[in-house]
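Question (not urgent): is this output format expected?
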Amino acid sequence: MRTAFVLAAVLLATACTGSAEPEPDPSRPAGPARPGVLRVLAGSELTDLRPVLDAAARATGVTVEFTFTGTLEGAEALANGDVDGKYDAVWFSSNRYPAGIPEAARRLGNQVKVMSSPVVLGLSTSAARRLGWADRRVGWGEIAEQAGRKAFGYGMTDPSASNSGFSALVAVASALAGAGNAVDAGQIAAVTPRLKDFFGAQALSAGSSGWLSEAYQRRATGQDPGARVDGLINYESVLLSLNAAGTLPEPLTLVYPDDGVVTADYPLTLLADAGDDARDAHRRLTDHLRTPDVQREIMRSTHRRPVVPGVQLDAAFAVRDLVELPFPAARESVDALLSAYFDRLRRPSRTLYVLDTSGSMAGERIAALRSALIGLTGADDSLTGRFRRFRSREEVTLLPFDTTPGTPTTFSLPEGDPRAELARIKAFAEGLREGGGTAIYDSLSRAYEVMEPLVAADPDRFTSIVLMTDGENANGSDLAGFRAAFASAPASVRQVPVFTVLFGEGSSAELGQVATMTGGRVFDARDTGLGEVFQEIRGYQ
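Got this back:
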């Protein structure tokens, strides 16, 4: 599924937004068990702990080998036993979701909280002042009301891909339900109109907290053609880090809802089947990380809060005492909340897939493309697949190409029961045939032509293009020609990002330029399955 890698590789890969990032696979081991090495399956936001962990290795003799994964992928790896014998520990922002799955929960051993960060709203200073929130506390109800009036727009991660988006979804649903206990399926239905108001103001989606903050920064500074947004819902630590970097045109004002937040508590969790060496390494490392001096260093370098009593918060943390909202303990409630978000609450999406069906796609490659598309129609019943499928109210256009662009076919999934339209997408995918040359840029230009009237007729959608190719451009216009055509397109169309997928011999340099030019991102499927990459892209749509 994804390729395991250590932290240093991640930092190198993420240094450039347009470059492809290798994707981790929790089912593949980081390496054999060794004394003094802790193999950890973790959330990708922990990349900023590298200096702290390097110092910890010198002090304790324990080296951490990270493999990064997403919220649902990590829970699924635990539940399916993919972590057994391959990892010694997991380190997610929270264990709440896997703890609700019996098969995953039984694999969780000793849990030691290392730091914390609440999920809050960060608004540009001018937007906070305009709304009257710069110097007073407000609740989720008022935030949802103003969102419903489109008084501001914000970015948030996909709650099936990232814990910050998941925590925001739980927080606003729990606060609006106002029951004082964990929200359940019945309460979700009762507050659906207010939740739709709140999520109607979401203007930017992402599969990770890091990419979300980078996209916000690029838009705020005019480096990204996408429309500017007023702020982000993200970890407090991410928002404070953006302010500390000093690169935003104006700092973010952090809004702490007075009716409560959901806080990430980052438990470094030993797996139940870990050996004696791993248990000893876990104890030495967590003891070190919880010493007052290291807690202060974590606070200084990552902007996360200390969890050890007696370590004082520094001045950057304007609100000290936070109300913690209850989190659903039952998996059924969590799944109901996620299903409601995708099928009823969020703004619907529109995606156009530009699909290489040239002669070089013959054999396993065209079979992989068919399978990846069919998986998005609901054929993949895994935990991850259930929330990364095509959704009710979604608009999907498939544009195959070879020597020239093919005929685009659009599928509109109705609200309620989309099975008939999903069956049409499945039949289309099964009918894909390979042959001919490779006209990447003519086909991409055609995609933007197709998008123009669709965006004009219904602009209130998350709109994106996915470009998948296994080769270099061989027919029609070149990258320079596409660049010129893109520059002359209407502003509303230039705001549509292209998420490029490297496959086979695709040109990483050119596809990286396309992603950067359009405000998208590169995904690398050369060493992984197209199905997994297509699912990951869903978090950005």
